[in-house]
Amino acid sequence: MTSALRSMPQVSAPVPAARILNRIVGGLHWLRIAHAEQRRRARSRRELAQLDAHALHDLGIDRGEIDSFLAEAMGDVEATRRRIVDDVLARRQAL
Q: What is the pTM of this model?
C-alpha cells in the first residue's frame, strides 16, 4: 500500500481555510462600507430635495443641480463650483 501512495501524482495543497475566510471577511467589509456610503449619499440628497427653492438658491444651486452638486461635493467628479473648490483647498491646507 505504501508503494501505491508513492505513485499517486502530487496535488497542490488546497488554499488554507483562513485565507478564504479573510477574503470573505474583506469582501463583506467592503460591502458594508459601500452600503454606508450609499446611505449617506441618499440622506444628503433627500435633505437637499426637501429644501425650498429659496434655500437652494441661498446655497447657490437649483433643484435640477442637486445630483451634480452632491457628486462634486463628495469627490465623485471634478469640482467646478467655486464654493466646493474653496472648501477642498481649505481642507488640504489644514492638513
A: 0.58
